[in-house]
Every structure is written in C-alpha cells, then in structure tokens.
Amino acid sequence: ALPGHLLRGLLPLLSVFHLERAEGAARRAGLSTQPIWRQLWDDVMKTRPPNSENITCWRKKFLETFFSNVLHGVLDVSSDWRLNDHHFSPLLHSSPHVSQLTLCNMLQGAVELAAEHNHKVLENLAGSLRILKFQHLLSSDQSIRHSLVLLLHRLIHHGSVSQVSMYSWPVPDTVLLVLILSMSAGFWRSENALTYHGSVCGLCREEDKALSQESVQERAERSNAENQKGFPKAPEEADAHLNSVLSDPSSSPQAYEEASSKGPCDHTSSQGGSPPHCGSGQLSCHPVLRKTRRQHKPAVRRKRRCLRRSRGPYADPEDLYDFVFTVAREDNSGLLDKSSTKEGENAENWTNCSPGSPCTSHAGCKKRGGPAGIFSPKAAQRFRSVSTLELFSIPLTGETCRTLSNLLSSWVSLENLVLSYNGLDANICCILSGLRALSRHPDCHLRVLRVSDVFSHMPCMELVHCILSAFPQLHTLSVSFDLKNQLEGNGPEGNPSCSEVEIPESCLEQLEIRFPREPLHTTFLLPVLKASKSLQQLSLDSATLPCSQELGLLLEALKECTPNLKKLSFHDVNLAEHQKEVLLLLQDPVLQEITFSFCRLFESSTAEFLSEIISTVKRNSSLKSLKLPGNRLGNHRLVALADIFSEDSSSTLCQLDVSSNCIKPDGLLEFTKKLEGHIQQRGGQIQFTHLRLFQNWLDQDAETAQEALQRLKAVCSVVNDSWDSSQAFADYISVM
C-alpha cells in the first residue's frame, strides 16, 4: 500500500526474498523491477550472460541461474546480504521460475532433488520445468540411478518436461543411457512399484484407484466390443501370465516368448500401415499417453489398460533396474525380441549392414517392419513422454541403436529428433526402420529430424531419399556430414538404388543439406524437389559443382518444382564462375531471403559485377534479406552497397549481413555517411532495420569504429562483436 515514489526507493534495498514478494505491488504501481534484477545479476553472477540482448525477463533469468548454481554448489548464498535471508530457502523459492535445468557429472543434482527434504522443490519443478539437459555424465551406482528414476518419473511421467537433451558423453554408460531414453519415451517396467521414500507414488496410486473403480458393466461392454474385433477374451489372464514371467529372474527364454506371443506388440509385426494387432491389456499398442491427474479424463483411463503390478506396493530396489540391465544386454539374456523367423532374419540384416551399401537394400528402408530390437515395450507400462529428444556427441552402439529404434517406433508424442555426432555409420538404417514404423502410426507427431555426423555412411542425397521415402510427414529435415566415407563413389552412378525409390508427396517445408565436399548432382535432388511442393527453405552447404551447367540446372529445377520457396542459402559453395546464375537468383520475384556465405563471389569478378548486383537488388521489391558473409567485400564494395537504398531504388531490403568481410572502421564510417545521405534524400522513409557486422576488422581503430556504430544505431539495429582480428590473422597464418 506504499505510494509509488516510496516503493521505487525501497525496492533496491530489499533482499531477494522480499523483492520477489513485492513484485505484484510494484506491477500494480506501474514500476518495473527489471533494472534491479539486472543489477543483482551483475553483482552476484559477475558474468555476462550469452545473448543478453534477447533476455526479456531478468527476474526469471536470475532466479533460474541462481537455482542451478546453488544446486551444483558453485554459489555461496552467504556471499551477498540480499541472498542471506533466514526467510529465504534458495532452492524452494527459486524453483517455480526454472524452465530448464542441466544435470551433469555424477548426477549430484538429481540426488539432491530426489532427497526427501526437497520434496516441495521437486513438486514445483514438476509444474515449471520444460527442458531437462544432461551433460558430461559419468558412470553411476545403483543409488544414484534410483534417485534419477524418481526424478524422471516425477518430472516427465507426472510433470511438464517436454524436451530431454544429452551432451558430450564420450563413453556412455549403456544402462544409464537406456534408462534415460526409455523413461523419456514414457516406458517403465510395470511391476516395479515406483516408490518415493518408502511409499508408492501418489499420482500412480490415485490413477490405479480410479481404474479399479470402473464398473463391471463397463468392463463387460468393452470386453464384448473387443471380442468382436478379434481381441483375446481374457486380456487380464494374459497380463497376469506376462507379469509373472517378467517378475521372475529365473524365467526361461521359452517362457518369455510364450508370454509375449500372446499379444505381439513389436513394430515388426505391422503390415500395410495398419497398427499392430494385440490384446487390449497391452498398453504399448495404444497411442494414448499417460497424463497427470489434472489432465486425466475417465475415457483415457478406460483406454489405458496398463499392466498391473504383481509384486505388491514395495518392490525390491534391485528390481527397479532389472529391466534396464535386460535392455542393455544382447540375446545372451534370452530377451532379444524375436517372435518370428522373419524378424530374426531382419535383426541379422541390421547387424550386417555394411558401410557403403545402400540403405534400401535392408529391411528397414525397403521392407515393411523394423529391427528386432533389444527393447521390448511388452514388458513396460506407458506413461507421459517428451516431445523433443536431442543427442549431441554421444556414441551409439548397435544395441543402443536397436533400443532407440524400438522406442521410436511407438513414440507418437515425439515432434523433434536431433541426432548429432553419434557415430551412427551403418546403424542409421536401424534408426530409419524405427522412424518408418512410427510414420505409419496414425497419431505420429514427428515433424523435425536433424542428423549430423563426422562420416557419412552413404551419399547425402541418397540418405535424404531414404529418409523422405520412410517419413514423408516431415516438415524439417537437416542432414549434415563433415567427411565422406572412403568407400563411397564420387559419381552419380556410385549407388543408384536409392534414386530409383519413388518418394511419396511430402510435407517438407525446410531442407538443409551439408555435403562432405560431395558433387551436387541436380538429377539426385530433382526427385526430392518434385515431391516437396511445399518447400519454403533450402540450404546447400559445402557442395561442389561438377560442371559449369550444374547451377543453371538447379535453378531451373527450383523454379519448376518449388513455387513456394522463400529462403535459399549457399554456404561454402564456389560461385566465383557463376555470376550469371547469381544475378538470376537476385532478381527472383518469389525469394525473400538469399544467402551467399563464403561463396567467393568476388574472387575473379570485375567492378561491373558489383554494379549489376546493386542494380538487380534495387529493382527487386520482394527481397527482404541479403546475407553476404565471408565474400571479401572490403571497404570499397561495402560503401558501394549503400546505393541499394538510394532515392531511385524500389528495394524493400530489411536485413544485410556483411560479417567476415575484411571491413575496417574507416570503410564502415564512409558506408554510414553514404547511407545517411540516401535516407535524407528519401525523407527518412527506409525499411532497412538490421545490419550484421560479426568478425570484421573494427578493432584496428576503436574511435572511428565507435563513431560509425553510434551513427548506424540511429538508423538500424546493429549486431557486432569484439573480435580480435590480429589473433585471428595469426591463427590463419599458423595453419597455412
């Protein structure tokens, strides 16, 4: 109830606890606390946050980082009086503001959060956390894994986490990796009672209670309907038999096969795009995701016929990990899921997928069905799952790929999948098999797939063909490789099999291909373009042009097949001898953004070529963004580009990127003065809003550069960096 002027003077004197409580009063008084939180960041964190210009709420940024630092023991709350308040519980009061969290090393953070004294902290995170990251993980013992299970179950299965990302794990612990993957996919062993400090998970118990209250009449009606569709008459008997087999470690493989054969659920059994035929008691066949109590509806409860626990509410802690250890082993455990001879043959095909052989020659890309993977959803209960999975720099073995493939085959909630530097090699075929099975699922949501690695198992265009033929529903596809496999051929005749596979009409809107210095053959790209009428963005990186006519053929194909293309990007493609094609692109009436990045545009050009570029852009009223980084513009060419905005120009260019172009401060100042003159002639009417200047030589004269930047910022938004050009030049000389 304080007057606004008194509250304004009081806010900077408050501790974090009281500042947080005064947030509502400040808002009602029309006061912003953002400057105070920003000052807190500077005083406590003592670092400049990345992308600070994009931070919209310093309160959230501070409290989220504060939570992470306290959790990992890198911040002492007694170091600042504003943090050292006896009313203030660091983890508890900052947890509602945490939307992303990183756990690393020995998972000390997971152990701390799963501790009983942090129960309320975990409950807060279940409502606020959206992104969970794992980085630099090490092997862990059983007690740590138990804490991780509790954490993942609460945050994913009964929480709000929608993205799981894992980074930099050179030698992954297979058990731990499979545990994270399977729980992210919503799977966990059904007979294991997930306990929280001695008691069964309350949310699971409430759902079980709701299920048990279904009327006998409803059960009978559902049973009759299922019998008419050919389902087993007594699914509960099959469930009980399967649970008894799974709960007994001494069970023989024959008994396991007998139990699992009563309701085959593996994606290898799907034919003709129809869903697998199985008993109603087996949840893994149902696309319904288990939701939290607040989101649950009775209809959903009736559909989710989960396997019931058969060993009482308190399972042996060892049992919590039996399933993961089973998944991590090969068929010597007797649990390799081979329910038919044909599926066993498919599994061997995956094992023998040799480098250099076309993916279409294997079951996963040519035949229907998928690999007989080592993860068996029949033994698991289905919970809520995440929508984004990212794996960066984590080597995936053959068995791990088969596990991931089986998880992917029914991961209907998955929308984004990123596999980056995982050493897949021939195992990419196994991943494609799981994706093919997923694509046939009516409730599939996957729309974004990004695959990158050091070596390519097959030519890039061949892989693109395989992916789109297996998964035409994709909206975004990115394929990127650093080096070419030595077993690949260089010519278009090297592996023709994939080009013969017809690609169905796709939903593709964005296609990014990074070639490992491969020739760009339009004949291979043409079927992809013809099947992608909705394509809006195309990026071609590090490709070589096999002949002088190739770029012209590509432009003709783009004009004919992609009428909706808005953004076109070339990176590290030598266009020095393709000036005619460059000008044709710049005058295209449909393209809104064109990128020529490190394309050596002016390597062998004359002054007339630059004049033609400027004249062409001035006449093009549809082009909004022109990006020319790394083309050695220099001062004189930059100054000339200012004429794009002259009084007689029809250009509506909003963004210009001239990063890495050897621009010096005096050249930038001259460009600024010329631009100011054109703006004055046009009466201040100009649409130019963004200029990017990264990695130029502006440090050579700081005073001149500062003057140029200050004057430019009065015209448009300028993005640059403090780049040491002398050190960069020294690095360049050292590797010559």
UniProtKB/TrEMBL annotation:
Keyword field: Leucine-rich repeat, Phosphoprotein, Repeat, Signal, Ubl conjugation pathway
InterPro entries named among the record's database cross-references: Leu_rpt_41 (IPR026137), LRR_dom_sf (IPR032675)
Residue stretches of biased makeup (Basic and acidic residues): 214-224
Compositionally biased residues, Polar residues: 244-254
PANTHER family per UniProt: LEUCINE-RICH REPEAT-CONTAINING PROTEIN 41, MUF1
Entries under SUPFAM superfamilies matching the protein: RNI-like
Region annotated Disordered, chain positions: 214-308
Domain of life the protein comes from: Eukaryota
Ranges that cross the membrane: none
GO cellular component: cytoplasm; nucleus
Keyword Signal appears in the UniProt entry: yes
Record has Phosphoprotein as a keyword: yes
Signal peptide as annotated in the record: 1-22
Stated name of the protein: Leucine-rich repeat-containing protein 41
Biased composition (Basic residues): 288-308
